[in-house]
Amino acid sequence: MIPLLAGFTQFAGWIRKGHPAVHRWMGKAYVLTVCLVTGPASLIMALYANGGVTSRMTFATLAVLWMGTTVMGWRLAMKRRWGAHREWMMRSYALTLSAITLRIWKYVIVMTFAPPPMDTYRLVAWLGFVPNLLVVEWIIRRGRGRKG
After folding, report:
1. What value does the CA radius of gyration of the chain take, rounded to a whole number of Å?
2. pTM score > 0.85 for this model?
3. How far, in Å, CA of 23 to CA of 135, rounded?
4. Three-state secondary structure along the chain?
5. Where are the domains of the chain?
6. Inter-CA distances, 13 with 17, 18, 42, 132, 137, Å
7. What pLDDT shows up at residue 148?
8. CB-based contacts of 98-104 (< 8 A; 24+ apart in sequence)
9. pLDDT, tens digit (0-9, with 9 covering 90-100), for 30-86
């Protein structure tokens, strides 16, 4: 819950600009939680995921990408490269939101197609985060085009 809540506050301009200390503290809570608690726990849980090797590889990939994008965002903030920092943290938060989107996809797929449970699990493992990353990449690139 900490990454979901802390991350949500990070993209509110009025917090970033009007309350920079809150932005920094919430950002630190986000990074520390992802990199030291939930990310490593996700990687361990991936090793025991239902759905066999496919699901285990998927969730391990998600965990590594989540921690990696978060570390990149943090490192860029330390270098005061704010534009790149924002882009990497957007990627990180897109991966954080996979906890929600996975469940939405599961509901939609089960209600629409009623596939066998293990097939659903294997499919939503990927759908939980890949579309999120595609959308955030589109948003980032669209934003770059407007600045240029």
Report:
1. 16
2. yes
3. 24
4. CHHHHHHHHHCCHHHHHHCHHHHHHHHHHHHHHHHHHHHHHHHHHHCCCCCHHHHHHHHHHHHHHHHHHHHHHHHHHHCCCHHHHHHHHHHHHHHHCHHHHHHHHHHHHHHHHCCCHHHHHHHHHHHCCHHHHHHHHHHHHHHHHHHC
5. 2-147
6. 6, 8, 30, 21, 20
7. 54
8. 98/62, 98/128, 98/129, 98/132, 99/4, 99/128, 100/4, 101/127, 101/128, 101/129, 101/131, 101/132, 102/127, 102/128, 102/129
9. 999 999 999 999 999 999 999 999 999 999 999 999 999 999 999 999 999 999 999
Terminus-to-terminus CA distance in the chain, angstroms? 37
**How far is residue 75's CA from residue 92's CA, in Å, rounded to a whole number?**
13
State how far the Cα of 7 lies from the Cα of 95, in Å rounded to an integer. 11
Confidence band of 146 (pLDDT split at 50, 70, 90): confident
Residue in 43, 101, 102, 45 with CA at minimum distance from that of residue 70: 43
When mean pLDDT is compared across 83-87, 122-126, 136-140, 143-147, the lowest value belongs to 143-147
Residue type, 9: T
